[in-house]
Write the structure tokens for this entry.
Amino acid sequence: QVQLAESGGGLVQPGGSLRLSCAASGFTFSDYWMYWVRQAPGKGLELVSAISSGSVNTYYADSVKGRFIISRDNAKKTLYLQMNSLKFEDAAVYYCMGGRVWGQGTQVTVSS
């Protein structure tokens, strides 16, 4: 079965950190660019970060540059997003996507 399954979301205080994971199955994970996309309440989808198949190239939205780090482990078929110095505006549902497959999303809440 082709699927992506995110985990690692939760409640964190401003300035805190979270690490999201996305486990892939059913397709050749290592062939594809992978993406983290988020959607805040009442807002549209925002591309947060992307990483090439071999991890050579990465992309970060200006809003997260310097705070988030994307990485992947092709042997484990897993995508990661290390989120540091979290802000209120980072609160959203975070989705991983790649190979035309979307995960179900994981909620990140930033609250004091």
Notes: The mean pLDDT is 97. The chain has no helices and eleven strands.
